[in-house]
Specification:
This protein is α+β, with helices and mostly antiparallel strands and 151 residues long. The chain has two domains: 3-78, no CATH class; 81-133. The protein is built from four helices and five strands, in the order ββααβββαα. The chain has helices spanning 15-20, 33-38, 81-106, 118-133; strands at 3-6, 12-14, 41-45, 56-66, 69-78. A five-stranded mixed beta sheet has the order 2-1-3-5-4. The longest helix is centred in the middle third of the chain and has 26 residues, at 81-106.
Length: 151
């Protein structure tokens, strides 16, 4: 659903609000730019959104006119400490789940009867320990060793 800017007041309204402002008007299903213009309004097009960092949020910050057309305007704000802590907690949970999947996928390498070379078993053991030791907030995931089978 689109937004519209009322020229007289500068207010930005939804399509429902625009229709309600003209109760005695029979509207088509889709509002044309010509009809919106006749109602004294302008279509507000979706503007570009800035890129936020991990600890920022993008929010709608009014509208702006660019080359005669109106666009939504977006700004970026830093999160407060509580929100940052929530992001960190969610990141840790997600990274632990990924780490656990990587461990589950290589459990078989540590079984005694698996015919991997001794060096390969040692490499997988070191890999698995690196996974356990990784910083769960900002992990650097080790590369999975290649399988080397006993001939």
């Amino acid at each position: 659903m689109a937004d519209y800017r009322i020229r007289e007041t500068g207010a930005v309204v939804t399509e429902s609000e625009l229709r309600a402002m003209h109760p005695n008007t029979s509207f088509p299903y889709v509002l044309t730019e010509e009809l919106v213009n006749d109602l004294g309004a302008d279509v507000v097009f979706e503007g570009p959104q800035p890129t936020a960092t991990k600890y920022q949020v993008v929010y709608r910050d009014g509208v702006e006119q660019i080359e005669g057309k109106w666009y939504t305007k977006y700004s970026v704000a830093d999160m407060d400490d509580e929100a940052k802590a929530a992001v960190d907690a969610a990141t840790i949970v997600a990274n632990k789940a990924l780490r656990n999947t990587k461990l589950d996928n290589t459990d078989w390498t540590q079984l005694g009867d698996v015919p991997l070379t001794a060096d390969c078993k040692t490499a997988f053991a070191a890999y698995r320990q690196s996974l356990r030791d990784a910083d769960m907030l900002n992990p650097t995931w080790p590369e999975t060793p290649a399988e080397e089978w006993v001939a």
